[in-house]
Design goal:
Two copies of one chain form a homodimer.
Chain A: E1 23-30, H1 34-45, H2 47-52, E2 55-63, H3 69-74, E3 79-81, H4 84-89, E4 94-97, H5 105-114, E5 119-121, H6 124-140, E6 145-146, H7 158-163, E7 170-176, H8 179-189, H9 194-203, H10 212-215, H11 218-232, E8 234-235, H12 251-259, E9 262-273, E10 276-287, E11 295-296, E12 299-306, E13 309-316, H13 320-334, E14 348-349, E15 352-353, E16 359-365, H14 370-379, E17 384-390, E18 393-398, H15 403-416, E19 420-426, E20 432-433
Parallel strand pairs in A: 1-2, 1-4, 2-3, 4-5, 5-6, 8-14, 10-15
Antiparallel strand pairs in A: 7-9, 7-12, 9-10, 12-13, 16-18, 16-19, 17-18
Helix pairs in contact in A: 1-13, 5-6, 6-11, 8-9, 14-15
């Protein structure tokens, strides 16, 4: 029952007052790429709105690899430098980390926090790897370390749960955490091939030139790691999670899923109890009425299973402007709000395992009669619930079975019947009702 | 662009620290009915969890109409009284208002706030009627006035947006705000009659013995009033909203909606721009893939249309334990968190009107050929998109048309063809994608 917490140092709050002058916050940017530039741009574009709320957000300096006067001017920055010493010599109220990856981001964030400067980031790789240590440093120095934009940037929920102990009594979650994968599967469902859908995602700026992090499931797994820490008080290593990417899904799979009353979505799932942590990141079959079933394109969503019932949060997952807005809202929250870190309290180390039992959506290719294949599965204790034949393949929705039994069944049909079978998790058919 | 704000008095934060003694908060309850008792019960039941987060929530006193020692003992209260003077003579850190309705709740909340005691409530009737004035009093006295539990109690979002100016740039919303109505329509969709579904909701404790507030749409309209204030900076009078209840919906309507690819849900809808406020509270047709389409039973949901995209929040709407948990989380948030009021800033008065244009789901009863009826509608500029015949009725989904044209068409078929037609709003078929 230890989970998200919002403990912080006692300090004097200086939250803006109506009618008072707006609070002037000098922002130092680490990195001026897509996200960093968007932070500078959105801060200027939204300055009137921010002023009515009592905030004057002022990006004054940026640390970049290659300073160029044109970039500084474009972002209206007084100081653009490639030297951390120069950046840290500026008077800064908040630092926004927008470099990405672990290093040098980690070292720079650590330096900011130990210097007593609050840090806001959208960097899930950094938070997955070092979130707990950095949060501890933030607390020790009485400053905030916030990363609302690291997970479903367009939908604020991490900070909310950090403040509300009873709402945060979570037991598990099921989520679509990678917008690129979701957009690609949505396109494939609409008839695209995987390469065409990927090419489109890249053209739209959704996927990176190297889309490996997205389509391999690694990006979602990093987010799952940080969610496990915040909601389950569990330390999970990202590289111990069971991760499958979406590259193996083709248009026929999606048509078959539809025929069997559902859809394939890129799912991150976890449930926990004490030290037990059942989880996977993989494309999975969702029944049509599943609350995440209608979340398409680059939209993200998370369904949190908590003591009070299931809560769904969904919306834009990423994109420079959405990310910048979430970062700037976090910057506003660092003002006078002492609970600006998701605090590091006692956490259990957990080794992830696959869920014990699950229904499965199985693709079988090979020229063997369905009845015969069904019998081979049954012999391994994997019982078919529904099946459909499509384009010379057989698709099956099973009753719940353990991963071991499914593996055994797949091996059997591969040997005896020379079929190739691939199994995807299938989520239970629970209406979103309480 | 003025909307939710979190301005508050500058004060010293006393947020709990890890390792420090929990903050002891003496709670005074106004009312000890379903909600008040649940607050006392949940505070005791969750005391271990709360302690690990640094909180010791202690309901010490309650104001009730008829004090009885047994009730005090049941709620472990030191003081149970029917005299406000006695209650206010107790040393209290927070007051939880759980009386409901406008008076005496309003007078007591006002007294608490002017005495410098923060107030938490779930009372949407009070907030709809006096939210702005009470928030102003709270601010003037440097204390919080929170009501996260007043709207979709099981899903925290009001306070979140109050803190995040960029996330709160909303232009409209579509929501299921009344769990009783949603549960009844879900039951009718599953084959119940309206009276049987209502009786079931009452048996389950969802509907009050007098369910008028729920099924008339009034409860949802009060919530829409407070959402308009928080998200649109608009003062709207609840009794000026266009409200239709669900009592007119029958099982055939729901079957027809399904045949036309959708579902009927109890919807509160609003969009705004400056002083213009288009809104209704009514049962409405949603296409199957609408993000609110899968939200059934007593579950609530809100889809917020904002600058950054559409955000969906859904989960348990009410129930004593869910409400009590949200209230207690608000109590935790009053500690050391200065932004504990959704502040009253400049707001525009708006007179609600029906949306200019909307698609419609129309039920037509009467023995007239479909083609003839279609022609009569067309003569009034209301064009049919799809239609279905069911149990001797005709159901139509129209292309967008103004309410005036639809009224005229209904009058025409009523006169010329002696048909009876009833129109429900139909929401557009937009996938939840970005």
């Amino acid at each position: 029952m230890r989970a998200l917490t919002a403990l912080a140092e006692t300090r004097t709050a200086t939250r803006p007052r109506a009618g008072a002058l707006p609070v002037h916050l000098r922002i130092g940017l680490l990195g001026l790429g897509n996200v960093g530039s968007a932070v500078a741009r959105v801060a200027r574009a939204a300055s009137d709105l921010l002023e009515t709320r009592g905030f004057d957000l002022d990006p004054v300096a940026a640390l970049v690899r290659t300073p160029s006067p044109a970039r500084a001017a474009a972002a209206s920055l007084a100081c653009l430098t490639d030297d951390p010493e120069v950046l840290f010599a500026q008077p800064l109220d908040v630092i926004v980390e927008a470099i990405g990856g672990v290093e040098p981001a980690q070292a720079l964030v650590r330096r900011a926090l130990t210097s007593g400067i609050p840090v806001v980031t959208a960097n899930k790789t950094l938070v997955a790897a070092h979130g707990e240590a950095l949060t501890g440093i933030a607390r020790a120095n009485g400053v905030g370390f916030r990363y609302e934009a690291a997970c479903i940037a367009g939908v604020p929920f991490l900070g909310t749960f950090a403040r509300r102990p009873l709402a945060a009594r979570a037991r598990g979650l099921t989520a679509i955490l990678n917008g690129t994968s979701n957009a690609i599967l949505s396109d494939i469902a609409a008839g695209s091939s995987f390469p065409a859908a990927l090419e489109r995602a890249q053209r739209l700026g959704l996927a990176e030139p190297d889309p490996t992090m997205d389509i391999s499931g690694r990006d979602a797994a990093e987010k799952l790691t940080l969610l496990a820490r915040l909601f389950g008080s569990l330390c999970v290593r990202c590289d111990e999670l069971h991760i499958s990417g979406i590259a193996d899904v083709d248009p026929i799979d999606l048509r078959a899923a539809q025929e069997l009353g559902g859809v394939l979505k890129p799912i991150a799932h976890a449930s926990w109890s004490g030290r037990l942590f059942d989880a996977f990141v993989a494309p999975a079959f969702l029944p049509q009425a599943h609350p995440l079933g209608s979340i398409s394109g680059r939209t993200n969503g998370i369904l949190i299973d908590s003591v009070g019932g299931r809560q769904l949060f969904a919306g834009p997952g990423a994109g420079p402007d959405v990310t910048a807005a979430a970062i700037l809202d976090d910057v506003c929250e660092t003002v006078g709000s002492p609970e600006s870190s998701y605090a590091a309290e006692e956490r259990l180390a957990a080794i992830p395992r696959l869920p014990d039992m699950s229904a499965w959506f199985i693709r079988i290719t090979g020229d063997v009669p369905a009845a015969e294949t069904c019998e081979l599965f049954a012999a391994q204790g994997v019982w078919w619930n529904h099946s459909a034949e499509l384009s010379g393949r057989l698709y099956v929705l099973t009753f719940p079975a353990s991963p071991a039994r499914v593996d055994a069944a797949i091996a059997t049909v591969g040997g005896a019947a020379r079929c190739t079978a691939t199994a995807f998790h299938a989520l239970p058919d629970e209406a979103f009702a309480c």
